[in-house]
């Protein structure tokens, strides 16, 4: 009883526990229940609580726990958002998305993964597999690809080769890493070898038959490496020239030799054309590798200037180097000889924007579109994880991720960010944690950028931190993990970055991890998630190139193409 009295004394000092000691009080003092003090919750607080409860009920996912037996396509931290192959939704609304609440900071810590749910769409199925021998390519080229260890052409090589061999201007759009370089090089070289005898040696001096334009020196170097491999078996000449500092010096570049192929970035090519070092008279094929980048705002002006310097016959000029160009722009004979200039646009996405200039040069009527069904979709054969983080969590999470990859020695890693300053910052951050990384961004001097990618490809660097400059076209078959430290601004950037893994010929299966930290990044993520859940194409990647060119042509020439 003494201890009860002690307890009571202690308790009475505390108003908050009145409710708790009431039974004691009743027991010890015998005060009736009627005398007990009442605690009333203020009305305002009650209604606030009610509202919170209501909101919590609404936020509860409307979809029931999945009972699907088909393979998993999206695996979520909150299992009730999982998505299975073939799963459909009666009433597909934003609330069906795992990332629905990700605009709120409270969602930090949530994640979901689009798991590997199909095979690489770039690879031809066993039944439909054609051989390189069946593609009407020059025999020496077939031998060359065999010596590279390639046996079966990829889908884009199978469908792109006949289209390009027909001589028509062609858009080849297929997934990243699907073998597009050979898809255009093999048919173009076949035509070049067939025409060889038609050009005198003096005529060919500094006058390339084929110009390949690329957005970056790294891609130009990579194309040259494929070209050089083919040169070991086939007799043709190829040169490469890229921009950057020292271009002036390079204007004393004329090789004064017959030139079959020139690989160049647009800026330096324009300078060489202005200086008269390159003669455009022998041009037969112009290839825009990574056409979506070359035709967007960043390169539009350069490309326009190059094309006007190249004096490519426009559709209305009707004249090409003394040859009459048919309204379709092309004169295709059995030998594949072309009357005008054949455009080949090569891209991993159908270009989202076209410059004002291109419509005046491209023989739109002859533009054949060779596209792959897997285009503008997430790669089904590569797991892609999306993590909702707070901005302050990004750096530690990255260090953790990089460290675990380095410890596993699983393969090399590419980390993408949206600006050069972040790229430099991440370089320092990783260095501080004894995780040295190579960098590539547009603000680096040409000298410091030179050879970085090549060394990364050779495995001399394990980690590469880069801006989108390194997301286009570069062949990265040793890369195992792509990390989007900054979530990309455009869906095409996402596809290009993710495409650094899961490439044809890759040694590892690959993985993509994306950090999502800001409200404005979530809209793009919703687009991606919806496209996977609905097995539909991603929006805003697919610009109708033909319609756009036609409209531009009509604007410039006051007549529609149909009227030609
Ligand atoms: P690309 O898309 O041209 O950058 O090529 C991506 C990778 O696919 C390169 O490493 C090529 O060597 C490889 N590749 C190209 N064609 C084939 C093929 N037919 N079979 C296997 N690998 C290929």
Automatic annotation (TrEMBL):
Taxonomic superkingdom: Eukaryota
Keyword check for ATP-binding: yes
Q: Where is this motif: Q motif?
A: 130-158
Q: What is its EC number?
A: 3.6.4.13
Q: Does the keyword Hydrolase apply?
A: yes
The protein's matches in CDD domains, at most eight in alphabetical order, are given as: SF2_C_DEAD
Q: Which residues form the DEAD-box RNA helicase Q domain?
A: 130-158
Gene Ontology molecular functions = ATP binding; hydrolase activity; nucleic acid binding; RNA helicase activity
The name this protein goes by in its record: RNA helicase
